[in-house]
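ok so for the tutorial part 2 we go from a plain amino acid sequence to predicted structure tokens. step 1 is just haveing the sequence, like this:
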Amino acid sequence: MGNALRVTGTVQIQGVNPYVLIQAGQAASLMRDWRKPMPVSLRINGKDGTQWRTNMMPSGNGDFYLYLHGEMRRESQTEVGDVVRLSIEFDDSYRNGPQHPMPEELERELRTDPTAESSWVKLSPSRQKEILRYFSGLKSDSARHRNVLRMMSVLKGNKGHWMGRDWDHGK
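step 2 — the prediction. this is what the tokens look like for a chain of 171 residues:
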């Protein structure tokens, strides 16, 4: 990476999502007056071989949440509470969005239920991406089927707990 912001921070957790808080002044050194998800490339703890592309999410006061998904934490051998060294660079070429295909069974189920399909469309792109990443990691057909049923239930508006969060009214 070129001119990168170098930050040391503690991995914290918000709900079920581990993150490092990037303060407003630090974020401004990457891109001044940026108020939407900021595309970045980063390295964790100086790991030369692994560069991650992600979006830092605005907190509303100029700070950003740099969420560290499971693969990032496994590769960097970090956990919630650990102090990490980050090297972060603005990445104008990164285009975020779902990077995993929707399972055929889920797509079929959504097409048959307008309420669930409407709830799916209303989910943020980052939530859709998180769900599709989750489904891509499931190893068995039975696990996929079981999770499609649970997801359809919560998207139909039923209260439930799925993917580490409480759902109500399809969100």
